[in-house]
Specification:
With 273 residues, this protein is of the alpha+beta class. The protein is built from 10 helices and 8 strands. The strands form 2 sheets. Strands 2-3-1-4-7-8 form a 6-stranded antiparallel β-sheet. Helix 8 packs across helix 9. The termini are far apart. The mean pLDDT is 85.
Length: 273
């Protein structure tokens, strides 16, 4: 089982209470995301009749994770999954939420040839979709010879087809990646959290949509926009009160100039406006 405890406030508590004798492993351990251990999903080998599976079945939390079935040793399955936590795209590395069954289900449904690469030593995966139904993701039979040797991360490539596949959910996907990437190994270098009770994820989605409406289109631009909004509040970009933000006044927005300005703002830091 791969459990993302962020799906429900009691998920982690239930895992330890219902499966006290099962070893739980931090999924991000020994991976490029190790420094974000507080956000790490948990990996555990559970029995078919595990009480935790009943809890998930009854509660049906969204984005909880997945059940993986494999004849390979657990450490080989774990090593393969950890090799996927980052992916290559547009010459850079991005976080790949491989632990979210909804993401894998969408990719493998639309691009079935990718299943053999993504599942590796896993025979099939059971997970929940957004439509509150179970779905089974499996390799093609001809893929049984897949090597169980994990490749160095990152090796998986996101293509234009992947981008098109998640176009309708771009704000949500990008917001999750931004929320995770803003956690730094050095707390002193991390930006402040949004004011009030709003979560960083909700804040990021809202301001990504604002950035898109302004004409920003690149992932880097939108992440910088969210970071600037965290630093300077809802008034960003105040093109009237802050002349340096004039690239945002252009229609369409001068994205390259806007990126240059936002990089300087993030480097200088600041506080909420």
């Amino acid at each position: 089982m791969l459990l993302d405890h962020g799906c429900h406030p009691r998920a982690l508590q239930q895992l330890y209470a219902l499966e006290p004798d099962t070893e739980k492993t931090l999924f991000f351990l020994d991976s490029p995301l190790e420094y974000m251990h507080e956000l790490s999903p948990r990996f555990a080998v559970v029995a078919r009749e595990a009480a935790m599976l009943g809890w998930i079945e009854d509660l049906d939390p969204q984005g909880w994770g997945m059940i993986l079935v494999s004849e390979a040793p657990a450490d080989e399955v774990l090593a393969h999954l950890r090799s996927l936590v980052l992916a290559k795209t547009e010459g850079k590395e991005v976080i790949f939420r491989v632990w979210d069954g909804r993401v894998l289900a969408r990719i493998c449904s639309a691009m079935p040839a990718e299943a053999r690469h993504l599942l590796g030593p896993v025979r099939f995966i059971l997970t929940r979709t957004n439509e509150q139904g179970w779905i089974r993701i499996e390799r093609h039979e001809e893929s049984t010879d897949v090597s169980t040797i994990a490749r160095p991360c990152p090796w998986y490539m996101f293509s234009a087809l992947h981008a098109e596949l998640f176009r309708d959910a771009r704000a949500q996907v990008l917001a999750r990646n931004i929320a995770v990437s803003m956690y730094s190994p050095d707390p002193a270098s991390s930006p402040p959290l949004p004011p009030g009770d709003e979560s960083l994820l909700t804040f990021a989605v809202r301001h990504i949509e604002r950035g898109l409406a302004l004409g920003l289109s690149r992932d880097q631009s939108l992440e910088l926009f969210v970071r600037c909004c965290v630093l300077h509040g809802e008034s960003f970009p105040d093109v009237v009160g802050t002349p340096v933000l004039k690239p945002f006044a252009a229609c369409p927005v001068n994205e390259d100039a806007a990126v240059a300005v936002m990089l300087k703002i993030c480097a200088q830091g600041g506080c909420h406006g």
